Amino acid sequence: MAIVEVVKYNGKPNEMAWKYPNEELGTWTQVIVNETQEVVFVKEGKVFDVLKGGKRYTLSTDNIPLLNKVINLPFGGRSPFTAELWYINKIFALDVKWGTAPAIQLQDPKYKIFIPVTAFGQFGIKVSDSKKFLTKLVGTLPSFDHDIMVKYFRGVLVSNVKNIISGYLIKKNISILEINAYISEISLELENKIRPELDKYGIELINFYVTSIEAPEDDPAVIKLKEALSKKAEMDIVGYDYTTKRSFDTLESASKNEGSGNLMSAGIGMGMGFGVGGQMAKQMSNISDKLDISNSKSKETIKCKKCGAIVDDTAKFCPECGEKIGNFCKKCGAKLTRSGQKYCPECGELQLFLCPKCKKEIPEESKFCPECGEKI
Questions:
Q1: CA-CA distance, 164 to 116, in Å (whole number)?
Q2: Which residues neighbour 47 within 8 Å (Cβ) at sequence distance 6 or greater?
Q3: 3-state secondary structure 137-200
Q4: For the chain, where do the domains classified as CATH 3.30.479.30 start and end?
Q5: Cα dihedral across residues 130, 134, 135, 137: positive or negative
Q6: Which has more confidence, 79 or 133?
Q7: Rounded to whole angstroms, how far apart are CA atoms 171 and 175?
């Protein structure tokens, strides 16, 4: 293989580390390093030097003093040798995708069931220490890209994501289906947890985002939970609880069976040996109270002027003292439908009470005119 005259980067855009494929070099070989790169010079498994970006280097003892120890320099210092040249891209990579597929199992603290959860997002990184990155992470691989890095750190990502999401569910006492409201907080906490782990390998974490936390729509546990929440929302809107709904379901099922009326009557009458009749009657009473089956409005009451007893306003006489109840038309004697009614619904007579002296309108129960003081 011929000795390389010029070395330059020829890797893919998303590669963080790329090894130049030819190791046959010479002291006259030139190495081009872009501004966003560094080149790590490796000889016999040992890092000899790191060539900074934005320059063209000639592999000589002037640039790499340690070459004197590993090669002979005959004929005016020109000599071939073998070595590895690693290009390290230090440009910011802000679109590294990550995810927890397959899903992780978490217990919903609000509903006490286990639900599979997937989380996805992206983060930004850059290589901060080329030597540390190459020796601790890349090793003998021919290249190292974003996908390989995510694969290497998947365990760190998944364990931290699981712990932090579980912590938020318990801390906030919320359902997994409500966790997306806390994505920003979770992203920040995950960033603080993962940054020290990447720093050990010479990688700086620029940012870390969680874009979604989801429960698979087709999972049986998720389907049942959403159905239950949908029913609960429906019952909250209508205004009755689960026990009431089950009572209606039971009555509806029984009504569809022949002879169910006799069976139900018999069951309620005998109590079925377990007080079913009493429970059913109580339940039906509750249902009637909640849903107002008869659609009847609550009756109005008035106070007896003589004895003070509370009397239904439809009564004509007080059941306690026999006093005539209500107000009556001064012309035709018909009972007025409400207190203070101005006109009789039967004959149309004006029902206002006027002061006999000043003719001002006064309340029916007044003993003196509020305008002139005349005794009524």
A1: 15
A2: 40, 41, 131, 134, 135
A3: HHCCCCEEEHHHHHHHCHHHHHHHHHHHHHHHHHHHCCCHHHHHHHHHHHHHHHHHHHHHHHHC
A4: 93-215
A5: positive
A6: 133
A7: 11
Q: How far apart are CA 16 and CA 108, in angstroms?
A: 39
C-alpha–C-alpha distance, residues 117 and 215, integer Å: 5
Q: Which residues pair with 312 in a beta bridge?
A: 301
Mean pLDDT score, 11-30: 90
Residue ranges of alpha helices (H) inside the chain are 74-77, 130-133, 146-152, 154-172, 183-199, 220-238, 242-255, 260-270, 276-291
Q: Which two tokens stand for residue 369?
A: 């005119």
Cis omega before residue 102 (within 30°)?
A: yes
List the CATH code of the domain at 93-215.
3.30.479.30
Alpha-carbon gap, residue 157 to 160, rounded angstroms: 5
CA distances from residue 190 to 21, 126, 322 in whole angstroms, order as listed: 38, 18, 81
pLDDT tens digits for range 172-223: 888 888 888 899 999 999 999 999 999 999 999 999 999 999 888 888 877 8
- Which residues in 245-254 are b (16+ Cβ under 10 Å) and which e? eebeeeeeee
Cβ neighbours around 15 below 10 Å, total: 17
3-state class (DSSP) for residue 130: helix
Q: Which of 35-49, 109-123, 240-254, 273-287 has the lowest mean pLDDT?
A: 273-287
